[in-house]
Amino acid sequence: MAATQVSTTPFDGQKPGTSGLRKKVKTFQQPHYLENFVQAIFDTQRGLAGGTLVLGGDGRFYNREAIQTILRMAAANGVARALVGQGGILSTPAASCIIRKYQAQGGIILSASHNPGGPDEDFGIKFNIDAGGPAPESVTNAIFERTASIDRYLISDAGAVDLDAVGEQALDNMQVQVLDPVADYAALMEELFDFNAIHQLFNSGGFRMCFDAMHAVTGPYAVEILENRLGAEPGTVMNGKPLEDFGGGHPDPNLLHAHDLVALTQGAAGLDFGAASDGDGDRNMILGQGFFVTPSDSLAVLAANAHLAPGYKQGIAGVARSMPTSQAADRVAEELGVECFETPTGWKFFGNLLDAGRITLCGEESFGTGSAHVREKDGLWAVLFWLNLLAVKRHSVAEIVREHWRRFGRNFYTRHDYEGVDAAAAGELMDHLRILLPDLPGKRLGALTVEYADDFSYTDPIDGSTAAHQGIRVGFAGGSRIVFRLSGTGTQGATLRVYIERYEPDPALHDQPVQEALAPLIVTARELAQIEARTGRREPDVIT
Ligand code: G16
């Protein structure tokens, strides 16, 4: 079959956001839209020609079709070998694992993460580099620049690849290897965690758990690892079948969207442990009986207890968290005497620190936790880490977290999201805050005094690259903070995120309800940003 050169013209707005290019399916279905972006990857990532490309997605609507197109384009662009997940399925962390294990030159992952799927919903595409992680901004900028001048793409006119048959096939001169999407990832998990101890926890009577795969990509991974290898009761994994529309749900593991799971952990007969993962398997939510572990606390607890898991028994080199993530992990790093980094939102900012061995663990408030084992955040990894802790400590989730707070103090934390806000109004709200910044330090807002106020800017300590305008930080004496950011992952209007945090060292005050403990700061945040006046919203759409 021949490679055809197809003439095209650029589309506006193919700029990758926080994590790849995310748009409505209908946008991607326009003739040449997907092809232009993919060709921009091949035109700028020269190592792919003659090299190995990993390809897979979260199984959402349009996944299979996009994979066939990308395979035909890869062949036409001279890729020597494509490693594809069976059925077109690869979770984001599994794709990262496979890129690293097979020393591929890069990977294309198809996902809009936790955003809903279906013909009228969202689709996404991201490029991961040879280290296995999301492309850094230098790469995404180069891809974006190329999309602005693209005038042709290359595509083979060969027929479809059988995505369901594990094994080798040829597509023109390119070898296509369809892989079991779970095997390599599961083997890596066995190296990191004490599977015997977790097996005993599951089979010594009394321990009850549920994992909600939310009809997204982690279903097959969770069934294989939790039920088949670790001996959890069949049915432990709920909503385990990946569906193109995630069963009509919103595959976002938080208290709102994983409400069925949350309900199972409530009350005297509630489960001991509940966990969920998102569309592409990189996010996680951890629940105990009647207890929600904030992602920020989860990172801090894992950092403090990492030595209990075999893969981390030597201790950790350092920790990093995204700027809006609570400062709980900083206190752990300080006590362990290891480095702690504050990076902009986006997993890509952890890559250099992981590659350089400066950090072992990293995490984000947006339900992401991970380590140097791959270069993506990893939902099931976090769940297994918690199970390993529970198996070793034989304490409940709540006891482990409360003990952590007693030792380090508690960072009360919440995020308020205002979704689908008019984009211009949201931009003006941020501009208004920027104007206020110089006058804030020293001012009293409510009962607190502002210590610093800035528009967060980050200089990567490894390559010196800088990222500016990464969110407004207002820090108060005593460690409280308010952070304002606009999301970089939405596909409609703007999403304003307000992150609120208060440090409380006194254990006698650790049991207050979170929203109550933060109420004065919440009022301060709303007033400072003039949220209601500027957006027309009295209350946030989602509180986590
Ligand atoms: C992505 C990024 C994360 C980021 C999150 C939220 O996660 O990989 O690093 O924290 O989006 O970003 P934003 O606040 O800009 O919406 P995912 O799971 O959507 O790929």
TrEMBL record:
The keyword Isomerase applies. It catalyses: alpha-D-glucose 1-phosphate = alpha-D-glucose 6-phosphate. CDD domains: PGM1. Residues 14-152, 185-287, 296-408 form the Alpha-D-phosphohexomutase alpha/beta/alpha domain. Keywords: Isomerase, Magnesium, Metal-binding, Phosphoprotein. Its cofactor is Mg(2+). Residues 1-11 have a biased composition (Polar residues). InterPro entries: A-D-PHexomutase_a/b/a-I (IPR005844), A-D-PHexomutase_a/b/a-I/II/III (IPR016055), A-D-PHexomutase_a/b/a-II (IPR005845), A-D-PHexomutase_a/b/a-III (IPR005846), A-D-PHexomutase_C_sf (IPR036900), A-D-PHexomutase_CS (IPR016066), Alpha-D-phosphohexomutase_SF (IPR005841), PGM (IPR045244). Residues 1-21 are annotated as: Disordered. Pfam families: PGM1_C_vert_fung (PF24947), PGM_PMM_I (PF02878), PGM_PMM_II (PF02879), PGM_PMM_III (PF02880). It is an enzyme of class 5 (isomerase). Its EC number is 5.4.2.2. Belongs to the phosphohexose mutase family. NCBIfam families: PRK07564.1-1 (NF005737). This is phosphoglucomutase (alpha-D-glucose-1,6-bisphosphate-dependent). The lineage of its organism: Bacteria, Pseudomonadati, Pseudomonadota, Gammaproteobacteria, Chromatiales.
